[in-house]
Specification:
By secondary structure, this protein is an all-alpha fold. The chain is 80% helix and 0% strand.
């Protein structure tokens, strides 16, 4: 009982973090009809800056890391990305008023990764002085790409069987290429490459690091406003999407937390690293995923998968998921 009370106290403390406060604040002012707008170009620049910062730090730490330490978490990231899509595809297929291709696209988006949610989690970990492997952010593509590929392949197989006509060949490389060229993943991978191959410490310390928390706060404000704006879009499709979008992030995150805990026991993966793995699994892509799925599953309704992700999934992943995983890590691993 004492352990449960301690966990709930830690969970309540995490909910008061400024990162989550800006997210909720954005939702509130949007609900009140505020005309506040952040230009899209500014939003994209902020995302670029945050992911470059994460990538640079990750790349510098990868140079110091042992390859053996990275292999098991990377394997788990791939497995989680595929598993989330498979679970989501068959879960949504059981729900009334859900078209199968829409359900597969939704599962794919929830299997893919949100760079914004990752940035929010790192901001909270750093604010709480919780150590983590900086290279853990590099697990992003290991989960993101397999999830999108799995969703598009499953959707094409389903639609081919449904039509009864011979299907076109399903080519994996175009999906991988589209994912790698996405703005979020490109920024992260560029930062990792520069961190590994150059010595970016001076510009990182003087420019990227000092701006991180301020830019993250603005990003959370924008995401809160966007989440509220998408509520009406979600109402146009089956209400089951809202239920799935609430339950899925926490379920996926807890599955990843369990696998991360195994890595913690076997390889010494830090509690903060376990939290990052859980956050990656609990997030849903908000930048690169939607255009990839639009191209790969054109018959799917974006209101279903984008609406459920932005209006419900992302706020749940940030406001509930991050504090939950940190609380669990502190309770189980003494972070």
């Amino acid at each position: 009982m004492e352990a449960l009370l301690e966990f709930l106290a830690r969970f309540g403390t995490q909910l008061q973090s400024p990162t989550l406060g800006f997210l909720v604040g954005g939702m509130i002012i949007a609900a009140l009809g505020s005309r506040l707008e952040i230009p899209d170009a500014v939003y994209k620049f902020i995302v670029f800056m945050l992911l470059m910062k994460i990538g640079l730090k990750g790349g510098m730490k990868i140079r110091e890391a042992e390859l053996a330490d990275i292999l098991l978490p990377a394997f788990f990231a791939v497995a989680i990305g595929i598993l989330i899509v498979v679970i989501g595809r068959y879960t949504l297929a059981l729900l009334p008023s859900v078209k199968t291709e829409d359900g597969i696209a939704t599962a794919g988006l929830f299997g893919a990764v949100s760079g914004s949610t990752l940035a929010a989690a790192l901001g909270v970990l750093e604010a709480e002085n919780i150590p983590y492997e900086a290279w853990a952010a590099a697990l992003y593509p290991f989960m993101d790409i397999p999830a999108l590929v799995t969703a598009i392949v499953m959707a094409n197989i389903y639609l081919t069987k449904k039509s009864g006509k011979p299907g076109r060949d399903i080519r994996i490389w175009p999906v991988v290429k589209e994912s790698l060229q996405g703005s979020a993943l490109s920024a992260l991978l560029l930062g990792i490459a520069l961190g590994i191959l150059t010595n970016p410490a001076p510009v990182y310390d003087s420019f990227f690091e000092p701006l991180f928390r301020g830019l993250l706060s603005v990003l959370m404000l924008v995401m809160g406003m966007e989440a509220w704006a998408r509520v009406n879009e979600l109402r146009r499709v089956a209400h089951w999407y809202a239920v799935y979008a609430f339950v899925a992030p926490l379920t996926h995150g807890l599955i990843a937390f369990g696998l991360g805990y195994i890595a913690h026991i076997t390889t010494g993966f830090s509690p903060g690293g376990v939290v990052i793995l859980a956050v990656l699994a609990g997030s849903s892509s908000d930048i690169s995923g939607p255009p990839t799925l639009r191209a790969g599953i054109p018959s799917a309704n974006p209101s279903a998968y984008v609406g459920s992700s932005t209006a419900v999934g992302t706020p749940v992943a940030i406001a509930l998921g991050i504090p939950l995983y940190i609380g669990l890590a502190q309770a189980l691993m003494g972070s």
